[in-house]
Specification:
The complex is a heterodimer of chains A (389) and B (247). Chain A is mainly alpha-helical and 389 residues long. Chain A has helices spanning 2-10, 13-33, 36-61, 69-94, 99-103, 111-115, 131-155, 160-180, 182-185, 205-231, 233-243, 245-249, 255-281, 291-304, 309-329, 334-348, 352-388; strands spanning 196-197, 200-201. Chain A has one domain (19-350). Chain A is built from 17 helices and 2 strands. Classes of the chains: A mainly alpha (389), B alpha/beta (247).
């Protein structure tokens, strides 16, 4: 099994070990050690880590810095939330005795549409009535937008800082669009009060446990997909393009196509994370898709080591827990502490956590081995002594 | 051996940058299988000429005809796919990849997204990489990372990366710049071997090197062609001596 994993997916011992370790931590260690409240927090952080995983592919390997992953993440989240909201609205209509049913003037419509004097479902919401179509949209909608933007920019050889600025502009556009179109998107409040998915109540503890496992398994699957791409010729081409784009072009490759592909793949992975967030946390807001969250996603990726898919998950978990922890302990100072931490860690460990593990892991492993063998030697010499006596 | 067939027809080619005519009405013909060298003082327009052929720069006027295809309208990667390989003045290899991977990436299969995702490193690829590695004297260094090679070895690797795509026409920009005497000698052998089956257009400054390898020499000066012919003919041309070769 180990060698199968090695050959097909990860390519070397160290990477197989780290993947299995991550799987163990997510699927066994955390559920055993944490209560459901914290596990739900971890699920929330894991949903964010999808964007960091996508960035490892598009930024670490492809050299494309996207400061707008929040857009794709958010689109996935909004699609999911729209579907769940329609279901919640329909159920409220069925539930009797709630204040909501008396407050709504049009039954079966999401509450924010009601507040905006919309009396029938806008056409744009029709696809979200169906679960399969919504699932497909989670994948296709951000992918399509990434495709258009990617091709438009990469064919024109826009890259580097200019590309990053345009992705930031995308964040602005999405935030303004979603906030002003209150009737269609819930405006500044977002889409809230999500209750059930296909009849299954997602707010119960058991549902939260299941959603945690679904999120963990999906993030591991995304990592495996990422490793497959990295190990293929396309992965090497991306590294080559990152370092020497002209040479790749003059070896007969249309570089724009490869860059667009990895940009789209990264967008789709982020989008799945966003959809899972909506399920895990029960709402979606335009504040989650703006510039600040998008930059945080890059920070998660850099922290974990931007060439490491597994590192991206750890990076996200650490930064997010750091944020929660420090903001609780030092409500006035936590931002400064976080800022200081980023500066120090980026300077001391430019390759992120993954870099630290790569550099010091083998040393620690050999120290551990020596200690272990020393113990063995002492034990066997004790045994020999005992025999002699 | 050069034949009377031409692999590259350049006619009335011009390009100007903000009014400065870098290449001024040039007509050049490269015979099939020939080793054709372009020499001239700095700023003569030699590198610009190669840029125009391989598509890095678009001409203001004129035609470049390669094997019955008009190159002036084609994008760079299509020109490469048509059979033209360009080597840059500074070694452009992939520093993060090994010599093997550098050559493998340049292997002309899996040139689109799907092809690249599903590309398998099968026997054909491995054999071909070894074959080319032998030609470029790097057979024992296949697992070395690109950035660890010496300057001369990087030049050879880049030539290898072009060769593995089996081009009809090779454009080499100062292939022996920065090389030791021994490396120059080996490169000369390499180029003579290469030009047996292909046409090669070289830019060079080292006159001794040019004398050894060239079938035909073109001298450029201020964007125009000053003289053309065999090395002897060109060396003894008074205009060339005044402008370039001195005394």
């Amino acid at each position: 099994m180990n060698t199968f994993l090695e050959n097909k997916i990860t390519g070397n011992r160290g990477q197989t070990v780290s993947l299995i370790l991550l799987a163990f931590v997510l699927i066994v260690l955390f559920p055993v050690c944490m209560d459901i409240f914290r596990l739900n927090l971890v699920a929330k952080y894991l949903s964010l880590s999808f964007a960091a995983v996508g960035l490892v592919l598009c930024w670490g390997y492809g050299g494309i810095l996207s400061l707008g992953q929040g857009v794709f993440w958010g689109l996935g989240g909004y699609v999911m939330a729209a579907f769940l909201k329609l279901e919640a609205a329909a159920n409220i209509a069925k539930e009797s005795g709630t204040d909501q049913i008396k407050a709504l003037s049009t039954v079966g419509l999401p509450d924010f549409m009601d507040w905006n004097q919309i009396t029938e479902l806008p056409y744009i919401w029709y696809p979200f009535k169906s679960f399969p179509i919504s699932m497909i949209l989670v994948l296709i909608l951000p992918g399509f937008i990434a495709y258009i933007i990617g091709l438009a920019m990469f064919k024109r050889r826009v890259s580097g800082v200019y590309f990053a600025i345009i992705t930031q502009a995308l964040c602005w556009i999405m935030e303004i669009l979603f906030v002003t179109r209150q009737g269609w998107t819930g405006g500044i409040n977002g889409i809230t009060d999500l209750r059930t998915c296909l009849g299954w109540d997602i707010r119960t503890e058991s549902a939260q446990y299941i959603l945690y496992f679904i999120t963990s398994v999906l993030v591991l699957i995304m990592i495996i997909i990422g490793k497959f791409v990295i190990r293929s010729k396309l992965g090497r081409l991306l590294v080559a393009t990152r370092d020497m784009e002209n040479r790749v072009r003059f070896s007969g490759y249309d570089v724009a196509n490869f860059k667009t592909f990895i940009f789209c793949l990264s967008a789709i992975i982020s989008s799945i994370g966003g959809a899972l967030f909506a399920m895990n946390v029960g709402f979606m807001s335009p504040k989650l898709v703006t510039i600040e969250p998008s930059i945080y996603m890059v920070i998660f990726c850099a922290f974990g080591g931007r060439m490491s898919l597994v590192g991206a998950v750890y990076g996200t978990l650490l930064v997010c827990s750091g944020r929660t922890f420090f903001s609780e302990l030092f409500p006035e100072l936590w931002m400064f502490i976080m800022g200081a931490a980023f500066v120090i860690i980026t300077m001391a460990f430019p390759k992120g956590i993954a870099g630290v593990v790569e550099d010091y892991g083998p040393k620690l492993a050999s120290i551990a081995k020596t200690i272990f063998f020393q113990k063995q030697i002492f034990r066997s010499s004790d045994a020999k002594q005992a025999q002699a006596n | 051996m050069p034949s009377s067939d031409f692999v590259l027809y350049i006619e009335d080619l011009s390009v100007s940058f903000d009014g400065f005519k870098a290449v001024d009405d040039i007509s050049l013909y490269v015979e099939k299988g020939a080793l054709h060298v372009v020499i001239g003082p700095n700023g003569a327009g030699k590198t610009t000429l190669l840029d125009l052929i391989c598509g890095k720069t678009k001409p203001s006027s004129g035609t470049i005809n390669f094997l019955a295809q008009e190159l002036t309208n084609m994008p760079e990667q299509k020109i490469v796919q048509a059979g033209v390989g360009r080597k840059f003045q500074t070694p452009s290899i992939y520093p993060a990849l090994t010599v093997f991977e550098n050559l493998e990436i340049s292997f002309p299969r899996g040139r689109n997204v799907w092809g690249a995702l599903t590309f398998k490193r099968d026997e054909e690829v491995v054999e071909r990489v070894h074959e080319i590695a032998k030609v470029i004297f790097l057979e024992s260094m296949l697992e070395t990372q690109g950035e660890m090679l010496s300057h001369g070895q990087k030049q050879w690797l880049e030539i290898g990366m072009l060769l593995i795509a089996d081009p009809e026409l090779l454009l080499l920009d100062e292939p022996v710049a920065g090389m030791s005497v021994y490396e120059r000698q080996k490169t000369g052998e390499l180029l003579k071997t290469i030009s047996n089956r292909r046409s090669v257009l070289i830019i060079e400054h080292d006159m001794n090197f040019v004398r050894e390898i060239a079938d035909r020499v073109t001298v450029m000066h201020q964007g125009k062609i000053l003289a053309e012919g065999s090395m002897e003919h060109v060396e003894n041309n008074q205009k060339v001596i005044d402008v370039y070769l001195g005394h």
